[in-house]
Structure formats: C-alpha cells, structure tokens
UniProtKB/TrEMBL annotation:
<feature type="transmembrane region" description="Helical">
    <location>
        <begin position="185"/>
        <end position="206"/>
    </location>
</feature>
<dbReference type="Pfam" id="PF24672">
    <property type="entry name" value="DUF7654"/>
</dbReference>
<feature type="transmembrane region" description="Helical">
    <location>
        <begin position="475"/>
        <end position="494"/>
    </location>
</feature>
<feature type="transmembrane region" description="Helical">
    <location>
        <begin position="238"/>
        <end position="255"/>
    </location>
</feature>
<feature type="transmembrane region" description="Helical">
    <location>
        <begin position="40"/>
        <end position="60"/>
    </location>
</feature>
<feature type="transmembrane region" description="Helical">
    <location>
        <begin position="409"/>
        <end position="428"/>
    </location>
</feature>
<feature type="transmembrane region" description="Helical">
    <location>
        <begin position="500"/>
        <end position="524"/>
    </location>
</feature>
<feature type="transmembrane region" description="Helical">
    <location>
        <begin position="317"/>
        <end position="337"/>
    </location>
</feature>
<feature type="transmembrane region" description="Helical">
    <location>
        <begin position="154"/>
        <end position="179"/>
    </location>
</feature>
<dbReference type="Pfam" id="PF24677">
    <property type="entry name" value="DUF7657"/>
</dbReference>
<dbReference type="InterPro" id="IPR056074">
    <property type="entry name" value="DUF7657"/>
</dbReference>
<feature type="transmembrane region" description="Helical">
    <location>
        <begin position="72"/>
        <end position="96"/>
    </location>
</feature>
<feature type="transmembrane region" description="Helical">
    <location>
        <begin position="448"/>
        <end position="468"/>
    </location>
</feature>
<keyword id="KW-0812">Transmembrane</keyword>
<dbReference type="InterPro" id="IPR056071">
    <property type="entry name" value="DUF7654"/>
</dbReference>
<protein>
    <recommendedName>
        <fullName>Glycosyltransferase RgtA/B/C/D-like domain-containing protein</fullName>
    </recommendedName>
</protein>
<feature type="transmembrane region" description="Helical">
    <location>
        <begin position="366"/>
        <end position="397"/>
    </location>
</feature>
C-alpha cells in the first residue's frame, strides 16, 4: 500500500510539474493540447525519474542525519556558491518584456523558471533602489531616489553606511560585495536562514523530532506565502527573527552559565530590533501575537518543569542590553524620523484605520493555497492570496483533535486563530482595534497568519501521533479521514471559479489533497522508526514544497538592469551631468533611470515630496492624490494648468504643463512621443539619446 501511494504521488507530482510548464508556455491551454503535446510526456518522464531519485535520497537515514548535523555548514556553502555565481531569485528579466517597457534585450541571465511580472514590488521597485544605492555610494540620505533628499532606512529599508544597517543584516552584503553579488547574498542568505530558523523552532516545539522539524523548516521556507513575498516587506526577516526570538528565549532560560545568558540576551535584543525595523505593521502585528504566544508557552512550560532563575541571574544581562537597545532604537528612529513622520501623515498608507469585518469578501482566501498548485507556479496566481500549504481544513481538524487530547499549545494556537477569524468576519470596536494595534492590520493579511498557525497545528499533531501508542495514532487517523471528506467538498466548491477544464482542476486541486492525506496516513500507520515513515513524510512534504520552490526564477547577474545599452546611455549622461533632474512619462522607465543613478522625480515616492508638488498645485487642490506612497506617471502636455489623477491606491498620473516643467526644474525627460512638437518660447525639448524600446531622452532647455 505504501509503495502504491509513493508511486501515485510521484506520478501526480510529475504530471503537475509538466502542467505547470504547459501553462507557463501558452495561455489557451486545453486538456487535448496538454495530453497530445510531446513535451508533456518528455517532461513527465524527466520529472518522475528525478522525483523518485529525490525521495529515495531523502528517505535514507544516513542522508537525513548528515543533513541535520551539518545543516549550518551546508547553508553557508549554499550562500557562498550563490554569491560566487551571482545567483538570485530576482525577476529583473521583466525589463526585457513589454511590462518593463522593453528597455533591455540583452544579458537577461535567466537560468531557470519564469520572471514574475506580478512581483512589481521586487523587480520594479526594490531591486532598482538597491542598484541606485550602489550607483551613489550607499548614502543614508539619497538625492537620487525621488530626485530629492530621501531617507533610505524606512519604508523600503535600503543598504546604507549608517547605524540602522545593524538591524538589516541581509543588506550588509551590498555594502561589502557591491550590488551584483550583494543581490545574490540578499536572496540566498535569507532563504537559508529562513530554513535554519524554522528548523530550530520546530526542534523546540516538536519535541526534538529531527525529521518533523526539518520538514517544518522546508514547508515554511517554500510556502507560497513566503516565496511570493520573500523579497519585500521583510517577510523572510519576520519569520527568521520571530522564530529566533522564541528559540533564544528558551536558551536564555535554560542557560547554565553567565556567559550563555549574556550571549542569549544580546541575541534576544538584536532579533527584537531586527523584527521591529521590518516596519510593515500589516503582517508584523499578526505574527507578533503568534510568536508572543509561542514564547509565553515556552516560558510557562520551563517554569512548570521546575526551572528557576534568580533575579541576579537574569536582571543584569536584560537590563544592560535593554538600556543599550533603547538607545540604539532611539538613534535609528531619529535618523529616520523625517520619513516616519511623512509616512504617518499620508493618505495611504498612513491613514489606515481598520476594525475588521471584511470576511465575506475573503472566504476564498482560506483556500488560497489552491492557486499555488497550478496557477501561481505558472505565473498566473495572485500573490496577495498566497498562503501556507495547510490543505485546509486539515490544520483545523488536527488542531481540534489535539485540543481534545488536551495539548495546551494546540489549544492556545487554535484560540489565537479563532481570534483572527473573528477579526476577519466581525467588525470590532474601534477602541479595541487600536489598543490591540489591529487597526493597522489589513484583514486580507489574516489568512496568512491563520495558515502559519494551521501549519504549526499540523506538525504538532504529527508529533503527538508519532510519539503515541497505536490508539493515539488511530485517533489521529480518524481526524485525518474527517479532514479528507471535508476538504474534498470544500475544495470542489472553491475551485469552480478557476478558468481551466474540470479534469485539470481535479488534477490540480483534488488529487493533492487525497495524496497528502494518504501519505500522512502511511506516516501514522508506519512503525515509529524506519524507512516507510521517512518516505511517507518526504512524499507529503514534497507536495507542499514544489509549488513554492517554482515561484521565483533562478537569475544570474544583474547585467539586464545595469549593463544593457539603455543602462550605459543613462549612466553616461549622469556622469556628464550629475546634478540633473530627470522625469519620464512612464513610472517603469523612471525606475530604470533611477537604478542607473539618475535623480528622477517620479521614481517611486516611498513617501511624498509635498513641497515639490505644492509648486505646481499651490492651492493644495490635489493634495489627497499625491500625499501617499505612489508610483507616478508624468505626462507633459500642451495645456496651461497642471492636473493630477489617482489611477489606483498607489499610482497617480500628473498632466504637467510645459511651463511647469521649468517650475519643477526638470533637465531630462524620457518619452516615446515627439516632444519637440511642444517647444515654446520658454521651453525646448532637444533629443540627446535613444533607449531600447523606442524611448528617447530629451534635454529640457
């Protein structure tokens, strides 16, 4: 039976991977075209052989022992290799597509996968800003971004030679290695540390079960939620430092020497500072409650087990480190205060005031992991819906089963998930939202936190079941069967709106649930030790890991952004006229300019430059439009008045009169239009260079 489940799992996984490639390669996919394509069967055979080898490899006890005992060394070696070969997961290959205005057609550097156009926050915003910092010497106050003095340690934390870099360790690679290799370090180090930190947390929560802890680390690292958002908003840092806070708290309590306590105290406060300076409350607050609950549970368990720590043991390290930490936090806040103050006073996102109650519109988000099975790896999934691979309602049913077995940690986690669900579906009083800081949490972010809790509940249940007697395993087997029945019904209902044939939907949505539950059933039925249990767990984890692992491409180098013919033209003009101010009719072109060192007024304004826009809007009529975090389009037109239009929450357009071009002091304007037709007695547009994609740089005289 176990061999049959293994064979079916490998067969299905290979079919899914072939389907992923087919969806990525063509938009009008049908069942007939999928079945008859020769590449489908070649891909299927290749994937099947590779997956069989992989499962056989990881199910070997000697391999697992080696990987566990040398996991830190293996992680460091992985980072070194990625840095040496300039390998990252960036989607900067999009600059060679219409989404990137076709600004580059050479040196794409794509080794595997597909550049994700939907990840604009990464390839269009964050990575060009990293490049801009490298082109200008990594200043704390950049004159390039926004074309005005911009604090780079807030909103999007960027590498700079300043104090806040202490709490952004993964940005240090840019300072030491430069932009190219720094980007490789940024991607690889966060991925490795996410796995290591999650594994350490798993060892703590799952009774030192090495296989279960490493499986938990893999599922967290390659969860669709983690992989789709890994480059931005500090998502990787959130899990890394949140997990390490819990682990270090346990080690601080269990420390036997003063030296160990001091080291743990330093680590605790440093991780707390790193977590605080992620500065994305919409997720920080939700996961703060999760890690706070885990930390409290660890402390209570330690004290109940007879642990004791005298005042003179814990007070000195915590007091000294706390005072020093407060000083560092104050200094970092003072350096970034202009940006913090400006952000808090914006219409978006500063005016955010949420009290919950948006649940009815978020029902489908509970099943968001479904999109990762076939749509997200193909580039068609919505990243805002990406969550953890819980095969809902498996986590919920397992959690209830553990609660009935009176497992206190499961009871606490399930209660917290219920609170988040309540916040999603019921509008709470404003005063309660404010004192709990949930007023800063978008309700559409709640499913991600709930998914993480469900993942914890699943692995906690596996731990309890694998360490119990036959009666306990049967108990969880019944819960597993109930989850399968509920899950199949809910999955069919939730998958009806996807625009693919019914047979493909069954392959993508129904089969994974059946196979996942089947493998977990084999895990519960297998002896406490042995290859059968390891193989079953490896198969189950593989189904969770594959979609997330395919979420980002494998990219070598950054030449497409910094060494294309367009980039060289921009850099030459910047070198000849370093104080010039740039603008473009497209916000994408503006980001490409700023990436190559051009001070561009409509590069993404991470916080608004009100003084600049007041020059062309002296009455403040349009202030609600430009007082926000925003992408900006600047259209120069032959009109007497400048107007603003809000396109979406983070994008507005400026129809700038020719006279106001001079008012704003723009020296270079990049356009696909013939700007000489707008020449006037006061302003003249002279073409000075051409870029790929049909763009022309005009000097404004």
């Amino acid at each position: 039976m176990r061999v049959l489940v293994l064979a079916v799992t490998v067969t299905f996984a290979a079919m899914c991977l072939s389907l992923f490639c087919a969806i990525a390669g063509q938009s009008g996919l049908t069942l007939q075209s999928f079945v008859t394509a020769p590449t489908t069967w070649l891909g299927f055979l290749g994937w099947a052989v590779g997956l069989c080898a992989l499962i056989g490899f990881v199910s070997m006890a000697s391999v697992l022992d080696f990987a566990f005992h040398h996991r830190i060394f293996i992680g460091i070696a992985t980072i070194v290799l990625c840095v040496f070969f300039n390998v990252s997961g960036s989607s900067i290959g999009m600059w060679a597509t219409p989404s990137g205005c076709n600004l580059a057609s050479e040196n794409a550097g794509l080794l595997f996968g597909t550049a994700r156009g939907i990840r604009t926050d990464e390839w269009l915003v964050l990575t060009p800003f990293f490049s801009a910092q490298g082109a200008t010497g990594f200043p704390l106050i950049s004159e390039t971004i926004r074309g005005a003095s911009t604090v780079t340690s807030v909103v999007y934390a960027l590498p700079s030679w300043s104090l806040p870099i202490l709490f952004h360790p993964f940005l240090a690679g840019f300072l030491l290695l430069g932009f190219d290799r720094g980007l490789a370090f940024f991607w690889s180090a966060r991925l490795v540390c996410l796995f290591l930190a999650s594994t350490e947390l798993g060892l703590l929560l799952f009774r030192r079960r090495r296989g279960i802890a490493m499986a938990f680390g893999l599922v967290c690292t390659f969860a669709p939620h983690a992989q789709w958002w890994i480059a931005i908003n500090g998502i990787a840092e959130l899990f890394i430092f949140g997990s390490m806070l819990v682990v270090l708290l346990h080690r601080f309590l269990a420390a036997e020497t003063a030296r160990q306590r001091w080291l743990c105290a330093v680590g605790l406060f440093w991780c707390a500072g790193c977590y605080l300076w992620i500065l994305y409350p919409a997720w920080q607050i939700l996961f703060f409650y999760v890690f706070l609950l885990l930390g409290a549970g660890i402390a209570i368990q330690w004290f109940r087990a007879g642990g004791r720590l005298s005042l003179w043991q814990w007070m000195p390290p915590l007091a000294v480190c706390g005072i020093f930490w407060i000083g560092l936090m104050g200094a970092c806040a003072w350096l970034g205060w202009p940006a913090i103050q400006a952000t808090l006073s914006t219409v978006y996102p500063g005016a955010r005031d949420v009290s919950g109650g948006d649940g009815p519109s978020l029902v489908k988000s509970i099943f968001s992991y479904l999109s990762a099975l076939g749509l997200a790896p193909a580039g068609a999934g919505l990243t805002t819906a990406s969550s953890f691979f819980t095969f809902f309602p498996l986590g919920l049913v397992f959690g209830i089963a553990s609660c009935l077995r009176r497992d206190k940690l499961s009871i606490a986690l399930a209660s917290l998930a219920a609170c988040f669900l309540l916040f999603m579906y019921v509008e709470i009083p404003v005063w309660l939202a404010k004192i709990t800081f949930l007023s800063q949490v978008l309700t559409e972010r709640c499913p991600m936190a709930i998914g993480y809790i469900e993942t914890l509940l699943c692995f906690r249940a596996l731990t309890l079941a694998s360490g119990g007697d036959r009666k306990t395993r049967r108990y969880y087997g019944v819960a597993l069967a109930l989850a399968l029945v509920l899950g199949l019904g809910l999955t069919v209902r939730a998958s009806q709106s996807y625009p693919y044939p019914l047979v493909l939907l069954c392959l993508l949505f129904g089969c994974p649930l059946v196979l996942f539950v089947g493998n977990l059933g084999c895990f519960l039925a297998a002896p406490c030790t042995g290859r059968a249990r390891r193989t079953a767990l490896a198969c189950a984890v593989m189904l969770c890991v594959l979609p997330g692992a395919l979420a980002n491409p494998i990219q070598q180098g950054t030449a497409i952004l910094t060494d294309s013919s367009s980039a060289r033209v921009i850099r030459e003009l910047v070198a000849s006229d370093p104080d010039a101010l740039w603008a473009s009719e497209r916000n994408e072109v503006a980001q490409y300019c700023v990436a190559n060192g051009a001070a561009t007024i409509n590069s993404v304004n991470v916080y608004p430059d009100l003084e600049r826009w007041h020059r062309v809007d002296p009455t403040g009529r349009y202030e609600d439009i430009y007082n926000r975090y925003a992408h900006i389009r600047v259209n120069v037109q032959d009109e007497h008045a400048t107007t603003f239009e809000l396109v979406q929450a983070d994008l507005f357009s400026v129809d700038l009169s020719v006279e106001d071009v001079r008012t704003l002091g723009i020296d270079y304007y990049v356009s696909s239009q013939d700007m000489t037709a707008l020449d006037s007695a006061d302003v003249a547009f002279t073409p000075v260079a051409s870029l790929e994609g049909g763009w022309t740089i005009y000097h404004v005289e």
